[in-house]
Each structure stands twice: as structure tokens, then as C-alpha cells.
Prior knowledge:
Layout lengths: L2 H23 L3 H18 L9 H20 L8 H5 L9 H10 L4 H11 L4 H8 L3 H22 L2
Helix pairs in contact: 1-2, 1-3, 1-6, 2-3, 3-6, 3-7, 6-8, 7-8
Amino acid sequence: MSLQDRFTAEIKANHRIIRKVCLIYAGTKDDQEDLFQECLYNAWKAFPDFRMEAKFSTWLYKVALNTALYHQRKNKSPALEVGFEMAYHLSTEQEDNDHFDQLYQAISILNGIEKSVILLHLEGMSYREIGEITGFTETNIGAKLTRIKEKLKKIIIKDGF
């Protein structure tokens, strides 16, 4: 199987990872699509160096999150708010659920690193896996998650999501 065929197969199996990151980090559909293309491009450029020491999905999260964080810094844009409608589409498995939508609206207000950590946590990743992607220690991830959860509670209560 060629490098391009392997990459295409992996992306087809894991494209939702990039979509979720784009929904959290980009405000409009056009911005999401631009960020998606940028993530794909960066993943393709880095794919020859992927050593398969980690799962492809873990590696792809790292590429997508780094791309989104760089994109956000480059554009010097504050945390972009994800609309109610966009938040719903973050999970194709979730039923229409007010609490789910409220959570993702609140997440859109967090800073870039906080978004990354909570997104990976919501994906069911362990502290170790989150640490591999973000570069933080497991202990630091635990502390960050505690602070992020408290911050989200305050946002939801204060803003009435």
C-alpha cells in the first residue's frame, strides 16, 4: 500500500477528529472548512515522519490541535464562539440534548489549551493519552481538568447556557 493510500485510509477512518477540533476552534462554517484543509495539509506533510509509536488517532489529534492553536495565534483572534447549531453537530452519536449543547457553547469560550484538554477528555482519553498529545504531565492534566470543569460550571451558570 502506498503512503498516499495509507494516509487516505487513516483520514477516512478518523476525519471526525479534525472536524471536532475545527468546530471548537473556528467560528464560521467557512473558517471551519479552511482550518480543516489546513489540518489535512499539515497531517499530510507530517505523515511520512509518523512512526506508529502511538495510535494514528492520537497523532492526528496532536496535529489538528497544534494546527488550530497556531491558526488562532496567527490570526490573533480571541476565543471564537461556536453557535448553538454548530455545537449540536460535534457528535453524530449524541441525541439532541440541551445539556450537550450548553456544554459545547461553554467550551467555545475557553482558551485554546483548555479547549484541547477538555475535548480530549470528552473523547474518553486517559490522562496519559491527553498528556502525550498536549505535552503536559498526567498530574498537570488532572489539575487542569479540575479547573476547566469549575470554569465551565461558572460559565454555564453565569451566561445561562
